[in-house]
Amino acid sequence: SIPIAKQLASIKALGKASDLEKAFATTALVYNNSADPEGKLSKAETKSLLQTQFWGFIQGQESKPKYQEIISALDEESENKIDFEDFMILLVSLTLMSDLLQEIKNVKTTK
């Protein structure tokens, strides 16, 4: 498989893209590289993708009720698939509850 950085570089519209645009393009590429031909992920694949690609954000969240609710939903009704929109909602939800987000907020932005 082609590395994400190489895939990003092949998208001409991203040549002068902002950091935020590149971040969302990366997210879309990571999702698309794992999705089936219909552009969807099984719940098990979604859980695995979050655990491998989003570990920094979900690490240490296991005891939080909202995290448990999200993961339980991925473990139930496994025949239902996740589309990109639902995947993004999961990412935002996990990001907002993460301890890493607070650390990011505390990063110095000036010298």
From TrEMBL:
CDD domains: S-100. PROSITE patterns: EF_HAND_2. Transmembrane segments: none annotated. Residues 62-97 form the EF-hand domain. One of its GO terms (molecular function) is calcium-dependent protein binding. InterPro entries: EF-hand-dom_pair (IPR011992), EF_hand_dom (IPR002048), S-100_dom (IPR034325), S100_Ca-bd_sub (IPR013787). It comes from the Eukaryota. PANTHER family: PROTEIN S100-A1-RELATED, S100 CALCIUM-BINDING PROTEIN. This is SNTAN protein.
